[in-house]
Design brief:
Sufe protein. Chain: A, 154 residues
Amino acid sequence: MPQLNAMEDFRRDISHRTLRRNDGTILLTATMNDRFHDIHLEVVVDAETLTVNSAFVEFRKAPSLHCPNAALRLEQLTGLVIGRGLNRRVMELSGGEKGCGNLRTLLIGLLPLAMNVKAAAGIDDEQELLEMIHNRLVGSCAGYAQPLPPQDNG
């Protein structure tokens, strides 16, 4: 059997993390690691308005010396409100010869999590949290196709 090349035996790990902070912001963190990349992205969002306060990316490892130039486009995220039109805006700022498809992948997965953090504020019970998320996401994907039936509390 012939030896597999670098893309025929390939693994990419992507991680997203949210952290509600005491200063009224949400820290969103994403990482991408594979044979060619080690990218660390941080976005700070106002927890009430979901407005992006700042964004920072570090290309710890990249296949080209030019990859870190895509970080310059991230400042365009500042002031963006996470909500309707988000995907289009992320596509605009991460596309083209000055953009980065990997940053786009990280941002598209990461930024909507801020809406979940805001929606879950004050809910401590995990089951209640899951029900609230379910009801807010009805119609958004197969997992949330139908509203949950009313609970029988009797």
